[in-house]
Please model this.
Amino acid sequence: MAGRQGSEAHDGEARRATGEDRILTVPNVITAVRLASIPVFLWLLFGRDNRAAAAVLLGVLGATDWVDGFVARRYGQVSELGKILDPVADRLLLATSVVSIVIDGSLPLVVAVLALVRESVVAVAALVLAAKGAKRIDVTLVGKAGTFCLLTSFPLFLGAASTLSWAEVAEVAAWAFVVPGLVLGYVSLATYIPLARRALADGRVGSAS
Model:
């Protein structure tokens, strides 16, 4: 127990030394704004019945998926909270988008099922690994690319079902993004398996020490 407490204290000192224990950072604010925009998207889609406006907002949220991470790395504002908050925001935005657009009738059911199954597996695996004391696994580049493609395709599907003048083009673009997005998503899911085993082993070693 004393060894574990000493290790945790050392990790805490290391995070403080590098600034990774910070909460109020520009990337975290950006992520918080993206999270706060989700209710606005739902209001535009269902409250105002404005698919075009909802598609534009969702497109902006998807396009800014990389901004918080870029700012964090570029300006040395990587934080432990950000490492958790960023993927949570991505997962929540993706799940909300899928469910709401399916209810709206703008997203093909097969796309929704494939996306939600992948996200459900990731969520359950993360909970199981955390319960077993595994170390946190950072999001991979392939996973981020897959999420970006999906978050780009969903507003395009929504735009394709709206009154936008370029609705037909939006539908073609939507399929051009959603197919590689799903493929990359499941490829990243496979790559997480060895990472999860390593994280679990490292967590057990850390607990033992």
The chain has one domain: 2-208. The CA atoms of residues 118 and 186 lie 7 Å apart. The domain at 2-208 is CATH 1.20.120 (Four Helix Bundle (Hemerythrin (Met), subunit A)). The mean pLDDT is 84.
